[in-house]
Amino acid sequence: MLDLQFLHGSHRPDCDALVDKRFVGYSALQFIYAESIELSYNSNHQTLHAPAVWPTNPGPHIVFYPSKKTWHHYHVAVTGPLLDQWREDGLWPELPLAVNDPESLAEQWQELLHYINDSEHWQQRRAINILEKILLDILPQQEQVPDAPWLRISKERLEQGLDQQAVAKELGMGVSTFRRRFTEATNMCPQDWQVIQRIDQARELLLNSDTPIAEIAEQLNYCDAAHFARQFKKRVGVTPRQYRQIDQ
Predict the structure, then answer these.
(1) Taking 70 as the threshold, does the pLDDT of residue 170 lie above it?
(2) pLDDT tens string 187-238
(3) Do both 167 and 117 map to the same domain?
(4) DSSP bridge pairs for 65
(5) What residue numbers bound the domain in which 232 lies?
(6) Which residue from 28, 34, 247, 248 could staple onto 77, CB 3.0 to 4.6 Å apart?
């Protein structure tokens, strides 16, 4: 079994789609070659002008649609352990990025779509290599400004399991102010960010340790294993037990 599965991909020069959903169990990389779109991650909205790429990852409620009538759109949707590794390594983007050479990217994407539509094993391998090259090509554009001290502290406290009220109090902010500033800085609310960090830690423990699922739930500050399993399946698309069996 390949370590990355291509679910679907497309090229639509006159795309008029409205996407309004939470992505569950897979991610997609979107590329706007021409025109512009209205894009929201939860309550954080922006007008994204071509050329640019943007990710649709599990977690935030994502909405995008054309600013005018249509836009020139490419996309590819994937899942699998290699995607998890790319995200852990910082290779897969978490935020929209401008594109410096859209013509070259469009050519690579056309080649990628050609190979993902061929089910033969080595053609799928070629598709994985092309997608990784695309990610490496846009990697220099993924460098982000270091977190402000208040944001770094808030992330540390949320990872430790503190709730929003406790973090806001430590920072000397009202809860609503903290929630608004955190969402503006990260494109997701503190609760969603905290859940994603927990799920990422759970994935690592499930694949790389023999720690019982109940103990993982306790380590990650869940009230019980059943709550952990429900939240994990909602975010990842499979239960913790099923996820642990991926590499077996």
Answers:
(1) yes
(2) 788 988 888 888 888 888 998 888 999 999 998 888 888 999 998 888 788 8
(3) no
(4) 38
(5) 149-244
(6) 28
